[in-house]
Design brief:
Layout: H1 6-14, E1 20-23, H2 29-36, E2 43-47, H3 50-62, E3 69-73, E4 86-93, H4 94-103, E5 113-120, H5 122-131, E6 134-144, E7 147-156, H6 164-169, H7 173-176, H8 179-198, H9 203-219
Parallel strand pairs: 1-2, 1-4, 2-3, 4-5
Antiparallel strand pairs: 5-7, 6-7
The structure holds S-adenosylmethionine (SAM).
Length: 220
Amino acid sequence: MIKLSKRLKIIHDMVPKSVVADIGSDHGKLMIALVQSGIVTKGFAVENKEGPFERLRSNLIKYHVDDKVTPLFSDGIKDITRDVSTIVIAGMGGQSIVSILKAHPEKMVRVQTIIIDAHTAVPLARKEICQMGFAIADEKIVKEDDIFYEIIKFVKAEKAIISDEDLEFGPILRREKSATFKEKYQNRIFEIDSILAKGTLPKGRIHSLNVEKEKLQRYL
Ligand SMILES: C[S@@+](CC[C@H](N)C(=O)[O-])C[C@H]1O[C@@H](n2cnc3c(N)ncnc32)[C@H](O)[C@@H]1O
């Protein structure tokens, strides 16, 4: 069994049995693990950079999953087949994830599940994907090498209304309040305190930091 990082293991465990496309597959570890655990019998591993694509292709062969996972040297979802029902996009900025998902609506018709790990602009990704007709079904927060990652699973929904607080903190994460969730925002409060302690900021900036701190305290 190929070894996954904590972050990729969480993503792996959210994937339903389905035709899966992993966009920005890099080393291909996620798709290899998904085949090994019997979750994927047909899928696509997409890369748009030559070096990672070559590594991806040789890993699929090395782990004997190249009969089930097709490597695509391609941009986003452009060349995946229309029977794909799960899309995973991990390790990119939220804006790039949204742009990839919106670029080819014809490839989204059968998609029931989207799993993302956005490294920036997480609230924007929540908002845009909900507006595309998906609702948040699961969320996890994980810390790896001192970085916090939020992994979000969306499923196709009739209606997906989401509040501003849920966009920012995550509807499931903010209710679960895991130790990692608390640590993330506690760290930000410490950071705000140390910025404020320097005492050389314009009034407006001091006010906005205090507003942010009070808001974070309400969620801990
Ligand atoms: C930081 S890596 C993440 C790899 C893996 N998904 C993970 O989470 O460990 C992002 C990968 O996405 C690829 N990528 C970025 N934009 C892409 C696009 N539009 N289409 C396909 N691959 C893309 C990059 O080349 C890179 O290998």
